[in-house]
Amino acid sequence: MIGIETLDEFVIRKQDELPYAKGELSRLLRDIGLAAKIVNREVNKAGLVDILGTTGAINVQGEEVKKLDVYANKRFIAALKLGGECCGIASEENKDFIVIHDEISKNARYVVALDPLDGSSNIDVNVSVGTIFSIYRRASSGGTCILEDFLQKGSQQAAAGYIVYGSSTMLVYTTGHGVNGFTLDPSIGEFCLSHPNMQIPKAGKIYSINQGNFISFPEGVKEYIRYCKQEDKTTNRPYSLRYIGSMVADIHRNLISGGIFIYPATKDAPRGKLRLLYECNPMSFIVEQAGGRATDGFKRILDIEPKELHQRTPIFIGSEEMVLKAEEFMSDYPSA
Ligand code: AHG
Ligand code: MN
Ligand code: MN
Q1: Are 21 and 77 contacting, i.e. CB atoms less than 8 angstroms apart?
Q2: Ligand 1 pocket by C-beta < 6 Å: which residues?
Q3: For 100-140, how does the pLDDT look when each residue is reduced to its tens digit (9 = 90+)?
Q4: Residue of the nearest CA to atom 2 in ligand 1?
Q5: Among 275, 271, 267, 258, residue whose Cα is nearest residue 323
Q6: 45 C-alpha vs ligand 1 centroid, how far in Å?
Q7: CATH number, domain 7-195
Q8: Residues surrounding ion ligand 3 at CB below 5 Å
Q9: What are the domain boundaries of the chain?
Q10: pTM of the model
Q11: CB 3.0-4.6 Å disulfide test: which of 44, 158, 266, 310 passes with 216?
Q12: How far apart are CA 223 and CA 327, in angstroms?
């Protein structure tokens, strides 16, 4: 097609940049793209089909499971299993990682960590939701996958990406060679390259945080919020507060417009709310690849050594100058 490059074409054109297992990773990305289109179809019909609301179950995180969480989880797992390029999947919705046993997949070289539906509380009210994925080359040498394959530092990711089901649906991913964004053209059913080489502005005017929890934030975060609200023409303050409540959508907006997203430790959740493997690591890889910064307030997210699948971490992510400024306030109150 003249002038349009689809995700599949782009992935194949770029695969020579990759040092290893090129074809397999390309096929894995294609499988994820396919599952994304299927989930997108369902997200778009929400309200017409019986997919709104909760299942009545509580997941391993202690959170209410929405019907669309279950649907998206099933779709992504099915697509990854069928594709045969990954030997295991860790998902927000499954307590343990899933081992793919069939003969072709079990020796496959990749594992995937997945937040099948991010921001699921927004689905019932027609607000953007997302999917986040993180791909690692397995650490073990073959046979069925093991826990250590998933407990690798974020800096080891082979690829990461997200899909935002918004006013249009976009897939954004990186393999460590910059960040590219694709918009779904529903008339041809393809993700088409729309945002080549995405770069996050070095500074922005938006801060995104659930300020309703202010009272239980660490002192450094409180001070940073006060800073955001002060008037100062030279630094464009006061900043605007924008908080959708879907990490994917909040970070996607900041990636394009500039801004910082913070989910800090709180008194009730001293290790933060968001999960390292399938939320913070992939989003941090993307934001760093776009020229931004991501830390837990003190150290780089991608350098955290994971100890468990559903580990949580505070996160400060976005435009470099803004994250650095927030870290300055954090270091003034290292233990408060
Ligand atoms: P999920 O729907 O996958 O459980 O993730 C929800 C997360 C994240 O998307 C968002 O940034 C955050 O929860 C919002 O939490 P609060 O409602 O506490 O602000
Ligand atoms: Mn999430
Ligand atoms: Mn989720």
Answers
A1: no
A2: 63, 92, 115, 118-120, 210, 245-247, 263, 273
A3: 988 878 889 999 999 999 998 898 898 999 999 999 999 99
A4: 119
A5: 258
A6: 22
A7: 3.30.540.10
A8: 92, 115, 117-118
A9: 7-195, 206-332
A10: 0.96
A11: 266
A12: 11
